[in-house]
Amino acid sequence: MLSLPDRFSDATFDSYRTPSATQEKALRSVRQFVENARTVPTLGERMRHLFSRSSQQTKGLYLVGPVGTGKTHLLASAYHALNPDVPCGFLHSNALFRLNEHPGRFAERVADRCDVLCLDEIEIDDAANEARLVLVLQTLEQRGVRLLATSNVEPEQFLSNKVGPGRFRRFLRETFREQYEVLFVGGEDYRRGRDRARPGRGWIGPETDVRTIIRSAYEEDARRRRWLPFPELRDATTTTPHPTLMRSLKEPQALYVPDIKIRDTDDALRLLRVVDDLYLAPDAPAFYFSSAVPAEAWFSAAAHAGIAKAIAEKFERTVSRLYDMCDVSKHTAET
Question: Is 55 left (phi over 0), alpha (psi -120 to 50) or beta?
């Protein structure tokens, strides 16, 4: 559970691109974090940690910024640079939130195995999950486990900062920045670059036209393939346990999902979960889709408020991943 996904098996510091100043700074900071983690603390430093909760020796690093700026790449690079000399675990926040185990006990088990935890994509859309997260962070800090984390939001934007129990609000408002250095990582979404081929494709345009195009591609595809219009995929997410559904979606070599249209937050969350799991799966099929509007307009943060806005902001990561999975082209009635 604490191992690195195969998708990031070749991530290194040398392969991280730094077109922006904040990305260059983040690269330097994560390299320094790794060097610090490699340094064996002296007896005096260990004693200071016991009596000082703000000890620099165990201070974590929290990378925050928009999607597609390479934060997970840096996380994976640190994982490779530390293991096996420094026991390091890698965990996506979704895996943490799906656990039935008490978060404190889980964090104790992590601390028994790891000196460093790389925690990817901390979310903000569920106050109960954030409460679990805070308990994990507090336990890890008490055990002296260094944390390297990524997120698309500042810690002050967590829902628990507004509606959570008082102890969680105090942790996020007062203690968090003492224990973690918060670094902004800006830049363009690298997943949208046109410098390489994608395994799948997406077609945007008038619904009838792009449905004809994707159907032709499906019929000409000689691989094992599956045709699953989005309304049917949406229904399957409500009637089939998620692990079972994902196993079935990964059976073909190519998955065709025409007619994607997001009606509400429920649709957005269901598609988000499917796409994100396909993106991280080492054996995922090539993904093909069609839609009448561009993916970034399916569930835009600009059109929502409150919880829906938070989900829409998280959905931006899913859109970015789609652009990484698919070569997307736009069509008009004349093309």
Answer: beta
DSSP string, 202-237: EEES-HHHHHHHHHHHHHH--SSEEE--HHHHHHHH
Regarding whether 243 and 171 lie in a shared domain, the answer is no
The token duo for 71 is: 């934060």
Which pLDDT value is given to residue 310?
78
- 121 and 217 part of one domain: no
Out of 125, 155, 184, pick the residue that ends a domain: 184
Coil, helix or strand at residue 228: coil
Q: Are residues 209 and 324 in the same domain?
A: yes
Closest CA to 2 of 145, 124, 134, 130: 145
CB 52 within 8 Å of CB 173: no
- State CA 140 to chain mean position distance: 21
Range of the domain at 262: 192-330
The stretches of the chain forming alpha helices (DSSP H) are 21-38, 43-51, 71-82, 93-97, 103-113, 127-142, 160-163, 166-170, 176-179, 207-220, 230-239, 242-249, 265-280, 306-325
Rounded to whole angstroms, the Cα distance separating 146 from 203 reads 44
CATH classification of the domain holding 209: 3.40.50.300
Pairing of strands 180-184, 200-204: unpaired
DSSP 329: E
User: Structural domain tally of the chain?
Assistant: 2
The chain-wide mean pLDDT, for the chain, equals 86
Same domain, 313 and 204: yes
Task: Report yes or no on 335 lying in a domain.
Answer: no
pLDDT tens-place string over residues 251-268: 999 999 999 999 999 999
Same domain for 213 and 158, yes or no, is no
Residues 264, 325: one domain? yes
38 vs 56, 81, 120, CA distance in Å?
A: 14, 10, 21
Q: What is the pLDDT of residues 193-250, one digit of tens each?
A: 666 678 999 999 999 999 999 999 999 999 999 999 999 999 999 999 999 999 999 9
